[in-house]
Design brief:
The chain is α/β, with parallel strands linked by helices. The protein contains six helices and 14 strands. A hairpin with a 2-residue loop joins strand 10 and strand 11. It is an enzyme of class 3 (hydrolase).
Length: 239
């Protein structure tokens, strides 16, 4: 009986870091997973779930297009409804719209009804680490140390309606970054949406894979298991 296969899109970014934390997280769950790097459509087709890591979203989209992955990725997310998690640039890729894109724009995979603002906090040298309260991890849990590197944020949740009726599951705000003094130094306050979920798609502005904290990876793998069971897929118990 095959294990559930979780892929990490290996075009750029912290591929090894994500894979390492996934393996540690899986050790805390009573199910067996196979983890694989994804660079081809054949590798993607074998996956039951996928992580799109950080990097540079425009470059990732160009490489994905050249490798013939862009349309299969859209089908994976929007048609097959398989669990997908995007971190930083991965969040940008999974958004339906992006602000502050490079000249000429960029292609997106989509799946999250949000518009993201790229590079919300400035350049690479303005990267920072901050505590974030993530209620989905449990109210009693300690804050998560979020690593923000040229991070995007969700600047708008896009709503679609027909005759007053909502046409899609709403976007859930899963985490907000608050700071008394604005990062950009304008004297105001910051309250940015940095984690969202909609249906099978989850996105974070920050980089959990660059920490030793496995909590989000454990939580996400539980979502993968729940989806597999809902779809009637076999789940192999860990030995």
């Amino acid at each position: 009986m095959p294990s559930l296969t979780v892929g990490v899109l290996a075009l750029q970014g912290g591929v090894g870091e994500h894979t390492g934390l996934l393996r540690k997280a899986a050790a805390h769950l009573a199910a067996k997973f196979d983890f694989t790097e994804v660079r081809t459509t054949e590798q993607l087709a074998r996956c039951d779930a996928l992580i799109i890591p950080g990097g540079e979203s425009t470059t990732m989209a160009i490489v994905a297009r050249r490798l013939g992955l862009l349309e299969p990725l859209r089908e994976f997310v929007k048609v097959d409804g398989k669990p997908v998690w995007g971190t930083c640039a991965g969040l940008v890729m999974l958004a339906e719209e992006a602000s502050a894109a490079k000249q000429g724009g960029q292609e997106l995979v989509g799946g999250l009804d949000v518009r993201v603002l790229r590079n919300r906090y400035g350049t690479q040298i303005q990267s920072f680490v901050a505590d974030i309260q993530l209620p989905f991890l449990g109210e009693a849990e300690k804050p998560f140390r979020g690593v923000f590197i040229r991070a995007p944020v969700v600047e708008e949740i896009i709503t679609h309606s027909t005759m007053g009726q909502k046409t899609a599951e709403p976007v859930e705000v899963m985490g907000v970054f608050r700071k008394a003094e604005a990062v950009k130094g304008d004297g105001g306050s910051v309250e940015d949406i940095v984690a969202v979920r909609q249906r099978n798609v989850f996105g974070t502005s920050f980089h959990p894979e660059l920490t030793d904290d496995i909590r989000i990876h454990v939580w996400w793998l539980k979502q993968v298991l729940d989806t597999a069971r809902h779809k009637g897929l076999p789940v192999v118990s860990a030995v």
